[in-house]
Fold this sequence. Notes:
852 residues; alpha/beta; two-stranded parallel sheet; disordered N terminus
Amino acid sequence: xxxxxxKTGKGRLDKYYKLAKEQGYRARSAFKLIQLNRKYSFLExxxxxxxxxxxxxxxxxxxxxxxxxxxxxxxxxxxxxxPIPRVVTFASDITTTQCRNQLRGELKDWKADxxxxxGAPNVGTAWVxxxxxxxxxxxxxLKLAVEFLVKGxxxxxxxxxxxxxxxxxxxxxxxxxxxxxxxxxxxxxVSAEIFVVCRDFLxxxxxxxxxxxxxxxxxxxxxxxxxxAPGVASxxxxxxxxxxxxxxxxxxxxxxxDYTLFKKVGAGDFIRSPDPINVLGSVxxxxxxxxxEKGWLxxxxxxxxxxxxxxxxxxxxxxxxxxxxxWRMSLREELGLDLKTTHxxxxxxxxxxxxxxxxxxxxxxxxxxxxxxxxxxxxxRERRRANEIKTKTIQRMQLxxxxxxxxxxxxxxxxxxxxxxxxFDLNGAAAAKLRLRDGTADLSDDDMxxxxxxxxxxxxxxxxxxxxxxxxxxxxxxxxxxMYGAYQEKLRERDAKFKVKEGRKKGGLLEExxxxxxxxxxxxxxxxxxxxxxxxxxxxxxxxxxxxxxxxEDGDSASDDEPPRKKIKPRxxxxxxxxxxxxxxxWFGQDIFQGMEVPSETEDSEQEGSxxxxxxxxxxxxxxxxxxxxxxxxxVPQDEEDDGEDWDAEGEDVNEKTRQKIQKRGLITAEAASIxxxxxxxxxxxxxxxxxxxxRYSLNDKDGLPEWFLDDEAKFYKPNIxxxxxxxVALRARQRALDARPIKKIAEAKGRKKFKAAQRLEKxxxxxxxxxxxxxxxxxxxxxxxxxxxRKGAAKAKKKExxxxxxxxxxKGIKGRPKGVKGxxxxxxARMRKEVRAKKRKDAAxxxxxxx
Length: 852
Ligand SMILES: C[S@@+](CC[C@H](N)C(=O)[O-])C[C@H]1O[C@@H](n2cnc3c(N)ncnc32)[C@H](O)[C@@H]1O
């Protein structure tokens, strides 16, 4: 079996649909006749053709094209057909004598060579029009064919593979010499339709009227109709009300009578029927006709929803059917047809009565059990509450509703538990300790957080000791750091800017002006850690503090002569007068190097002269340059830790990188640009800048402070450097110029657009060639079609908008296109969004759990 095709949506717009559009046919069904004619060639030789059920006129168009000129073509349909050249049409019901008379009027005494019938009952429109089933329609068309066909003529009809099929073919066989059933390629596989081509009409002088009487032809099938009566639906017609979407069309054709009869059932029948599902699946409406049924309408159980559901069962969804069945159950209980459901309370009462009989011991046992259960439930509740609080706290943090600092202050935050008490409520901790010692701790496992557990485990430890306190604090700190990490992670996910900032920080591209900083700042490792104070101290120890003014002078004069950017030089290492850096001195000063000659760094240094200025605008740094002049200061021995800090082998590289970046990109912050401007205009000097570096922000001791606190400080606790209007304007102008430059992506997008346009045009050209090669079209028609194709090819195909329809209210349970919705649509479930979000949340939570 071939792959099932969709009969709705995109499946409908298949190759033949497009071909029909391209070739100007009104319906894709035109290709069915083309293909049938290709196989049996009945049109070319025909002089008169009757098309029964011809609207919108696809078959008529084909007939007019393939039949010789001046032939007679008559089309009939219930609905009017737009005029077609050389074709006579009228609107009529082919099952009526009026139609027969009209045909007679059109043909006069002519006989038709071909009678075509492609009729299908208009399911879902007027019930009257659907009074005949497909098979009956076929028999009616055969009746007309028998009357109007010439001897040897051809009758082509559509038949659905149903139980009637064989009977119909038998009748055809009685009237025609050759009867063949075929399914043209353009007929969809999903459709049960089949075409029967009856050739060589025998034109008997007398046709037994029974051959054309549905009652006789479909006689043995009448039982099915009886089966379809309300309340006793046949298994064939019964719909699976609980899984309507899974219902499949039977391969042997339409369900008989399923679309031709509008069935009603009395509410009484539904309530009393032993098989309510069958009733619901086979009727369209439940009515309240009798007095008894009308009485049910006023009952409380018969809600307005139930009444509305009864009105049209075909539009109901699963929930509505369930409601109807529940309603039926309630009514049956009321009517005494079913026993009332025994309620739980009744059982309880019963149990209580019995309890009086059981002896005291059992009662105590039960009481104990109850208490146990109660306490277990209480514990569970508390645990849940603690979890909720914890989740909320984290959520609030993620939503930036809580500063991380607040978490520590939330004394009742169960998630932080005992450790928190230790830090913020020492009395509480002491009391807990006492309780533990006295053995009066009445805390159950669940009453304690992680912290308290640990406290219990370390029961013997002295909680009041400083070490213990420190341990607790550090535990809390690490917990907070962990939470902060999670919070930052979230921030990073959400905020692209944050990512960029962090990246810059890591890359050592500090953009803000932070005053004079020590060398380590440049590494981006311990930014601000020692501040200007350390720098000053360092300079002092290095013995260059006294020479500052001197170097200032040099610096100033240099800045006077040249623009500041030229003056930017790689950072120099602080050197001792003997040419060895202080760090190297310390290193080689260790015992192990005793007696060895200390190498001179100046030899290897690429730097030229120590008096060079060291102004790094891009990084917002102005660093002092140690003078090489002799020192009047006593060198204070450094402790070992200092050594590590001062050892800055990569410092020069980083500075070089910064310098290169500035050279490449220029000054990128308004602060840096303003300072540069002031330097150029001699409004400030290097000395001033250095002095400005010693401010209240530079002398902060940041050791041991938590990361989140330092992050916050870095954002808000920093000097406010004045920026000039001109600097801002200049930077903006540069940014605008950058923005205006065509970027690679735009160029790529343009290229793609061009490429697609070329592709479209090429496709249109190919189609046009196809049209040109068709022999069926006149030159004029060809020209018109080619023009349309090329026009369409040149235009960009518009993306069709998809309308989203929520499957609730009136749309609930609807299959197929909802009312009033045109074009493409997507049916969505109202719950779906919530469920998808909940699933995402759960997945994320479980992932996180796995990670930790
Ligand atoms: C599939 S369409 C026919 C398409 C047509 N062969 C074409 O190519 O355009 C079926 C047609 O049967 C018509 N029909 C159904 N019952 C009819 C009846 N009793 N009398 C006349 N036409 C009827 C419908 O109005 C509908 O237009």
